[in-house]
Amino acid sequence: MKRCAFDLHSHSCLSPCAENSSTPDVMAGLFALSGFDIAALTDHNSCRNCEAFLKACEHYGILGIPGMELNTAEEVHVICLFEELSSAMAFSEYVYKRLPDIRNRPRIFGEQLYAAWDGSITGEEEKLLISASGIGVYEAADLAAKFGGTAYPAHIDREANSLLNNLGFWDGGMGFGMAELSMACPADFPSRREDLAGVRFLRGSDAHRVEQIPERPSQFMELDKLDRASVIAWLRRRNTL
Is 241 part of a structural domain of the chain? Predict the structure, then answer.
């Protein structure tokens, strides 16, 4: 059994709200430098920088997880993570087709840059990626599972784009067995709400800039094998941590 440090929520230069310097290789390298064993890239509504991120993670000796921070029709952010890059890319294309046809305005929202694993910029996405998709929050968990992945609501303790703030409640019928808390969330937050009883929790840095990557890990998962299948299986567990 291996004790593995992880962070499963970060953004690259493809997310318009992230810094252009946050290329996939830079993010992967800094996660490795900070002592993480596992890191996920979860750009807004896209997995298209994940291939570069996985290659960079392999180069730096850590396990990369392809993912996305889905923005649902209710403006709820949901972390979606996948075992296979091909599944993540198929999910990404599915989501892309369900985004409104709104052109990005880089001066307002920021650039949306595609990058290779060596940090070179290969292109720019013109459709605004932070829009609400046509996918409802009650669909997200099952949809991610159909693509071989798993999903859970992001930063539920925040006011912006969180399930509890936007909907006002946690409903087990949504299919989520886990939820993410922000790094600044008080430890007693879950105990304040009866509707969160039985829900597993993890924390995510939600790093949009290099300085937001934690200096050292603060959470770990116990795995028999350090691979993506084991990580996804660990996330799908229903028992309490």
Answer: no
